[in-house]
Amino acid sequence: MLKRVCSALLVFSTLTFGSWADPGQKILVLYKDRDANHENIVAFLTGFLKQAGYEWDAKDVESFMPSNPDMSPYRGIMTCYLSSQMVGGDKYAEWMDKQLEAGKKVAIIGSYGAYQGLIKKPDGKMIEWNESTRNINSFLWPFGLEFYFGFTADSSKLHITKKDKQFAEFQAKISDRDLNYYQLFKSRYPESKVYLSVNRSDMLDAESAFILHTPYGGMILEGFGYFWDTNKKAMVQRVDMVSFLKGCFEGQAPPIAHYDLTSHDELYKNPLPEKAPPQYDPYTTGQEKRHILVIYKKSEAKTLEDVTFFNRGDLVVNYLGGITDYRAVEDGLPGDEEMERYRGIVVWEHTPTMVHARDFEDWLLHQMEAGKRVAMLENYAAIIDSSTQARSTEPKRIFQKLGVDFGKLQVSRYEKKPTPHVVDPTMIGFAAPGAARPVNPAHIVADLILA
Asked: Domain of 198?
């Protein structure tokens, strides 16, 4: 009798309390409580985890991630998001990257889920903005993908270039007629296995990996893993989900590549011999001013080594004879007397929010009216005031000073391959030929400020 009771309790505990499972076989399942029907999707997908031999805990990512949780019980993470917006989306990629660094494998089933960030205003309403590809790729790049947006729902432009029987046509065929959704994901690692790839005919170099395994897990783009068959009145798998999840979580993830660089603090522990300070600054005497002020946000860069321009533009400016000074906007902006020494200003930021954004805009407009040159790269940094959540009304005036019209983003729809109207060989094709290649931002800054 005692054996029967113990056996019954053991079965009950296994089915009910996932936290009692072997931590080496437990998966953290992340969903969004705001997503409609998320309960059914979680139940459907965790059924495959069980068949694959894994236990799990299911958590709402928007309340779980900010709590700095203990991740030691989990072998890996499976995400099953149904929407593209996320509260805390600006921090999600960094958090997921840390899980890769800790050796956790990841299975992305559906949407990446943090293409847009959300901030809750005091009145309960949400502010939404698109996260930059730089932020999104800070996780996807080490995971094994490069993301470039490229969304379209026009199936006439889409064509399957590769499909695998087990992981694309497991229980149903797939053809071009089934393609009603596209985003551009480029596979990074040669050892990754792409099972379904789709090309977009109206874009260059647009073959996208929809289903794949990487050394760090795998991804099934939303809508291509399974679907509801109205005739059979059942869910049909295009992907052998049990085998796919085993492929995501089995084995050891290789270490993420890192560079062992000496930090600024470590350098200060062994300073150079002292010498007498110079009596004058040769860069500010005479007619030529060589100092450049780089504005950054402490919310993006905790140390100078985290400032993008310090890593990508400082060397070029110094090579050309300039001197860079760095000022965090949170530490206060310099007045007119201090600004006399500066030839120009660099603003290179990745997020649209800034504390006291309106004060920064007034200061920047004043400097531009005083004749200071300005180089602005990647993102206009003061669209939303992070202290009040108010949206700026000044970007149009600032961009007019730069000779650029500022307006709402319009979705590009290429009816034919894009052809550049003007190509400046001193700016385009810096490290590789072709007009569609990235420019060298450090040289743009040098040209704007030091020329």
From this structure: 16-249
